[in-house]
Every structure is written in structure tokens, then in C-alpha cells.
Write a structure and sequence with these properties.
The structure holds 2 protein chains of 2 kinds.
Chain A lengths: L1 H44 L1
Chain B lengths: L7 H19 L7 H6 L6 H11 L3 H14 L5 H16 L3 H6 L5 H9 L1 H19 L2 H13 L6 H50 L1 H12 L13 H18 L1 H9 L3 H32 L17 H12 L4 H32 L9 H25 L6 H25 L5 H23 L3 H33 L3 H4 L1
Helix pairs in contact in B: 1-10, 1-16, 3-10, 3-13, 3-14, 4-14, 4-15, 5-12, 5-14, 7-8, 7-18, 8-16, 8-18, 8-19, 9-10, 9-15, 9-16, 10-14, 10-16, 10-17, 11-14, 12-18, 12-20, 13-14, 14-15, 16-17, 18-19, 18-20, 19-20
The chains are: A mainly alpha, B mainly alpha.
Chain lengths: 46, 499
């Protein structure tokens, strides 16, 4: 069990380090695209 | 004595609060109607969904109870994280329930149930979701406030003011921008929270070392510190209950499911689940390490520094006490900003989630014909009303036992019945409304009765609650709800079927 928890702890840490930067970049793009779509939808409604 | 420096650490926290509230208020201009307010116009893509789900499902309260679990049970305290990681991965990969749920176009789970079981089931399901959800969330502010008081060295008498201030900031942007503000602030909060989590964990590992952490667990808990099966007070009932809970939460916990419902399509919803799944392990393991570090380094004398009110059960305050003295100036500010980020994202999402169920499902019979602007106004009022409830509930409720146990009991109020309902609704042709009502009633009554017995003035009731225990009570709620669904559906089939 000690090995399982060692893998879980360091695996979680590695996943966080790798994911944070990637999600920060891609997430910002998602926000821009989402707001652009909502903006054009709102214009169409008015 | 906390190392928190009001000039350096306070400036980091102040800057973070300014950015996040400004971002939350700025996006309010994109809210054009109720659908934009509740599900961001269903325009959310994968990576924003990953950031939002991770930020929502990690608050100060999560950090507190997972660290408490690490302090009290060692590594085996992180078993719920392993189970939820597996549940998210498998359900996201297969699309079990979540794919047809997103394809149904429903805004909430009860709306899906109405299509199969009728309006009364929708209303009853909405009621247990709100009841379970609000009781569950009722402790968030108090635990968040306690963390901040210990870490920053605040006077404990100011706890209520810290709680009120936190809530007021969250309410400002949630009321104005709804899900859009929640998503954008979640994104900022995910980045700040992740940087803080990683930096603090690395520092703890460097300062204490991995092997001393393992040794401390072995010395204090023995084999039970690594496996719940070696703990006679936990064993298989604990494992079975946690597995049921993890699966049910993945399928029906409204703040989690809201990300599937707000996603662009079912495939995006599934990908959000699979890509966020490791986070559900990390959210237990990393703060668990902090709790274990407190176990390894704090002696009995250290707890004398705690405010009087927190000394009775120091397990909850052990982690913030350890961090307040172990982290240097600057990193402590980053930690507080990260925890505030985590807490605000959770509070805002949960406020919106429960208000959306009240508006969409409980008010469904009376809101026909309402204009978009009236719908928006009512939604904003509901968010404010829930905020007021949280403040008062958090002030008077006294927690007995572990925080995680409290959350599992209150969560079970609806997780047990709604997980049965969603599976039966989507995959069992003979499921009927009688079965659905039976499952909802049993699933809600069982944990409420257990919670009432625990809090009762009658000694015999308190004793019987103790002898049954949280895990058997939870298993009974899930098993009874499934049985009620099967028996009710077979005994009272739908009319078409009878004909």
C-alpha cells in the first residue's frame, strides 16, 4: 500500500504541474470564444 | 504565532481579490437571459470546463476536511479521492448517464426526471436536492473562516466578520453575472489555487521529507494509516459507502453535473469528466499530505497557540496551524490567496446551483409566463436569499464528529435517491413514478433521521445512531432507495404498461 500512496502523491503533484499551465492557456482561449459567441447571439436578439 | 505579514502577504491577497471581483463583474454585460445566467448559454468548452469543475470542487472546506482526514487516518484518509478518480474516469469515458443527460437538453436533473416520471417527481427531486445541498453547504463559511483565522492569526472573535466579508464578495459577482461570472472567476481561481497548492506541497515535502511523513503515519496509525480495511472502525462498510457516494456524486451532484449541462455538447461534457478525473485524487492527496505533515511535526504544546474554541478537537485546526508557522512570508500570502480562490469559486458555484434548482424546478408551477427580465430578477434574489441562509446557519450550527462524515450524511439526502432515479430513468423501461417517489422518500428520510438522532437530546437515540454508524446508515439509504424504486415500479407500473 505504501507504494500505491507514493505513486498517488507524486502522480497527483505531477498532474497538477503539467495541467495548470496547459489549462491556463487553453482556458483563456475558451473564455474568449465563449464571450464572442454570446456577444453575437445577444446582438442577433436585439 | 502566524508568520502572516499584512504588508507583503496582505498585498498579494488584496491584489487577487481585486482581479477576481473585477473579472466577475465585467462579464455581467454578456448575460442576456435566464439561460445565460444559469448555464452560460451552454457555450462552455473543454478547458474552461476542466478549470471550472476543478475550482468548484475544491474549497477551503475541502482542504480542511481532507487535511483532517490525513491527520486522523493517515494516507487511508485519501481513499474517497481514489474512488472518485475511478468513478469520474469510467463515467466520463463511457458516457454512462451523463451523455443522455446532456443530450436531453435539461437545465437540471429534476427537469430530466419530469420527462419520464411527471411534474410531481420533478418537484420532489428538486426539494431533496435543495435540502441536501443547503445543509451540505451550511458549514462551508464557518470552516473557511476558521482556516483564515488560524493561518492569518486573526482574533477568533472576528470569525463572523471574516465569514460575512467572504460571502459578500462572492455574492457581488454571482448575483450580477450568474454562471458566466462563475466560469470566468473559476478560471482565475483555478490558476491561483493550483499554483498555491503545488508550491505549498513542494515546500512541505522539502521541509519534512517523504519518508518522515510515511514514518509518522506508521507510528501513529499502523497499517490502518495506509488501508481503511485494517481499521476495525472502518473496514468494508466504509469502503462500500464511499464507493457508492463517489459514483452517485459523479452522476448526480448538481454542481458537478452543471458543468455537463453547460458544456457545448455531450462529447465536451464527457471529456471534461475524464480530463478532470486525476484532480479528484489530487484534492484528497495533496491537502492530506499537509495534514500528515502537521501530524509529523506538531507536538501537544503547539496546540496551546490555538484559540480556546478550537482546542477541543485540534484535528481540524492542525493543518492551518502547521502551515501558519512553516510557510515563509510571501508563500503564506500565496496560500491564503489560493485558499480564498478555492473557497470563492466553490461558494459562487454552489450558490448558483441551488438557486437554479429552486427557480427551474421548485418554482416551475408558478413561473410560466414570466418575462426574461423577471426570471433574471428572481434568480438574483434567490442567490441573495441562499447567501443569507448560509450566513445564519453557519453561525449557529455546531459540528460534532468529522467534517467529512457530516458532508457525506447531508450529501446522501439526495445522492442516494437521485443516483437510483437517474439510472432507472435512463436505462430501466419499467421504472414508474411510484418507484421514483418511494426512492426519493427513503433516500431523504434515512439520513435525515440519522442526523436528527445524532443531534437529539434523548440519550437512547444518540446511542442508537452511534451503534449504527455513518457508513451503515449511508449504505441503508442507497440500498433502501434502490429497493423502493424496484418494488414501487413493479407494484405500481405506469398506466400504459398496465393496459
Amino acid at each position: 500500500m505504501k507504494l500505491v500512496w507514493t505513486i498517488a502523491a507524486f502522480g497527483s503533484l505531477a498532474w497538477y504541474v503539467l495541467l495548470t499551465g496547459y489549462v491556463a492557456v487553453r482556458g483563456a482561449k475558451d473564455i474568449r470564444a465563449m464571450l464572442a459567441r454570446l456577444s453575437s447571439r445577444k446582438e442577433n436578439r436585439t | 504565532m502566524s508568520h502572516f505579514d499584512w504588508l507583503v502577504d496582505g498585498s498579494i491577497v488584496g491584489l487577487y481579490l481585486l482581479v477576481v471581483v473585477a473579472a466577475g463583474i465585467w462579464v455581467r454585460r454578456y448575460v442576456g437571459g435566464v439561460q445565460d445566467f444559469l448555464v452560460a448559454g451552454r457555450e462552455m468548452d473543454v478547458y474552461l470546463g476542466v478549470a471550472s469543475l476543478a475550482a468548484t470542487e475544491f474549497g477551503i472546506v475541502t482542504c480542511m476536511y481532507t487535511a483532517q482526514a490525513g491527520y486522523q487516518h493517515g494516507f487511508s484518509g485519501a481513499v474517497p479521492g481514489l474512488l472518485q478518480f475511478a468513478a469520474m474516469l469510467v463515467i466520463g469515458w463511457t458516457g454512462f448517464c451523463v451523455k443522455p443527460l446532456r443530450e436531453s437538453g435539461a437545465l437540471t436533473l429534476p427537469e430530466l426526471f419530469e420527462k419520464r416520471f411527471g411534474a410531481r417527481v420533478r418537484w420532489a427531486a428538486g426539494l431533496v436536492i435543495v435540502l441536501g445541498g443547503l445543509l451540505n453547504m451550511g458549514l462551508y463559511l464557518r470552516l473557511g473562516g476558521e482556516f483564515l483565522v488560524v493561518v492569518t492569526g486573526f482574533d477568533a472573535g472576528r470569525l463572523e466578520w471574516v465569514m460575512t466579508g467572504l460571502l459578500a464578495l462572492v455574492l457581488v459577482y454571482t448575483v450580477l453575472g450568474g454562471m458566466l461570472s462563475v466560469l470566468v472567476t473559476d478560471y482565475v481561481q483555478f490558476v491561483v489555487m493550483s499554483v498555491g497548492l503545488v508550491a505549498v506541497t513542494v515546500l512541505v515535502l522539502v521541509n519534512v521529507g517523504w519518508q518522515p511523513l510515511v514514518d509518522a503515519v506508521e507510528r501513529t496509525h499502523g497499517a490502518a494509516g495506509f488501508s481503511p480495511l485494517a481499521n476495525p472502525e472502518r473496514g468494508w462498510p466504509y469502503l462500500v459507502f464511499q464507493a457508492l457516494l463517489a459514483t452517485a456524486a459523479t452522476l448526480t451532484w448538481q454542481p458537478v453535473v452543471a458543468r455537463v449541462l453547460a458544456s457545448k455538447d455531450a462529447r465536451v461534457g464527457q471529456r471534461i469528466y475524464t480530463r478532470t478525473s486525476p484532480f479528484f485524487l489530487a484534492r484528497f492527496v495533496l491537502p492530506g499530505i499537509w495534514g500528515i505533515a502537521a501530524l509529523a511535526t506538531l507536538g501537544p504544546v503547539a496546540f496551546e497557540a490555538l484559540p480556546e474554541s478550537l482546542r477541543d478537537d485540534p484535528s481540524m485546526a492542525a493543518m492551518p496551524l502547521y502551515l501558519s508557522t512553516a510557510l515563509p512570508i510571501g508563500l503564506l500570502g500565496l496560500l491564503v490567496a489560493a485558499m480564498l480562490a478555492a473557497d470563492m469559486s466553490t461558494d459562487s458555484s454552489y450558490l448558483l446551483t441551488w438557486s437554479s434548482v429552486i427557480y427551474n424546478d421548485l418554482l416551475a408551477p408558478v413561473r410560466k409566463g414570466w418575462s426574461e427580465s423577471k426570471g433574471l430578477f428572481v434568480n438574483r434574489l434567490l442567490v441573495l436569499a441562499i447567501g443569507a441562509f448560509l450566513l445564519f446557519y453557519g453561525l449557529w450550527f455546531e459540528l460534532e464528529g468529522s467534517a467529512w462524515d457530516y458532508f457525506t450524511i447531508t450529501g446522501t439526502i439526495y445522492l442516494s435517491s437521485l443516483s437510483v432515479l437517474i439510472v432507472a430513468c435512463l436505462y430501466w423501461k419499467r421504472a414508474s413514478r411510484a418507484g421514483a417517489i418511494g426512492a426519493i422518500a427513503w433516500g431523504a428520510l434515512c439520513p435525515v433521521a440519522f442526523l436528527a438522532a445524532q443531534k437529539s437530546e434523548v440519550a437512547a437515540l444518540v446511542e442508537s445512531a452511534k451503534s449504527i454508524g455513518t457508513y451503515w446508515s449511508g449504505i441503508a439509504a442507497f440500498g433502501g432507495a434502490a429497493l423502493a424504486m424496484v418494488v414501487g415500479s413493479l407494484a405500481f407500473p405506469e398506466r400504459k404498461e398496465r393496459a
